[in-house]
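ugh ok fine here u go
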Amino acid sequence: MVITLFIVCGILSIISAALLILVLIGQNKIDTYERWIVEFRDDVTDVYTQLKKIDEQNVFERDDEVGVVFLDIVTLISKLNTRIQYDVNIKKETQEEN
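structure:
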C-alpha cells in the first residue's frame, strides 16, 4: 500500500515537472513574440514619423496614391496600439532594471 502511494506520488511529480517545463517554454515564446510585436510597432511608428518630416507641407499626404499609404500606416499603428495589451513603458522600465 505504501509502495503504491510512493509510486503514484512519483509519477505525479514527474508529470507536474514536465507540465511546468512546458508552461515555462510557452511563456518564453509568448514573451519573445510580444517583444517582436512591440519592436515592429515602434519601427512602423518611426517610419511614419520620418515620412511626416519629409512631407512637412503635406504634399504627399494629400496626394491620392501616396495619401493612401499614409492612411494605411496610421491605421496599422492604431491597430498595433489597440492589440498590444500591456503598457510598454512598464515593460521597458522592467527591462532597464535587469
